[in-house]
Amino acid sequence: MTHLSKENYLREAKNIYLYGKIYFFTPHKKAMTYIVTESCIKCKYTDCVDVCPVDCFREGPNFLVIDPDECIDCAVCVPECPVNAIYAEDDVPGDQQQFISLNLELARSWKSITKSKGSLPEAEEWKDVKNKLEHLVR
Ligand code: SF4
Ligand code: F3S
To answer: Which atom of ligand 1 approaches the CA of 55 most closely?
Structure first.
């Protein structure tokens, strides 16, 4: 067993103290979230809701969002969406980046939805339509 000299011991103790301080005061990014994007608008199939283990979907009149503070990044909702509306935050396409802040904003005011309830009546008609943001009802 090696013994530290008093000098080395004090130096090690100082390093541990400084590293601890740096770690404590450095902001740590929250784990990634998943984001509902444009394809959901006017479709709202709601298949995604049943599989979420932490009930983090929030419902508006014609769109769903994910509460980024609740999402645990499990990804099980992704394959459930028939229109592939759900992306990991880092994979949201360039032209849909505004949905990252939109999910956060709308999750603050919309109510939780925990059971699927079927799509909107016009879903089939709108599922392949692009640029639907203007149709989002808040
Ligand atoms: Fe829920 Fe997991 Fe989807 Fe996040 S990634 S919304 S926790 S099912
Ligand atoms: Fe929307 Fe797809 Fe869920 S259309 S409601 S994200 S299943």
So the answer is: 1
pTM exceeds 0.85, yes or no = no
Ligand 1 center to residue 117 CA distance, Å?
18
Neighbouring residues of 23: CB distance < 8 A, sequence distance ≥ 6:
none
Within 10 Å of residue 64's Cβ, how many Cβ atoms? 26
Q: Which domains does the chain possess?
A: 34-133 (3.30.70.20)
Cβ of 72 less than 6 Å from ligand 1: yes
Q: What is the pLDDT of residues 70-108, one digit of tens each?
A: 999 999 999 999 999 999 999 999 999 999 999 999 999
The verdict on the CB of residue 40 being under 6 Å from ligand 2 is: yes
Instruction: State how far the Cα of 106 lies from the Cα of 47, in Å rounded to an integer.
Output: 20
Angle ∠(40,43,46) on CA atoms, nearest 5: 75
Q: Cβ distance 41 to 135 under 8 Å?
A: yes
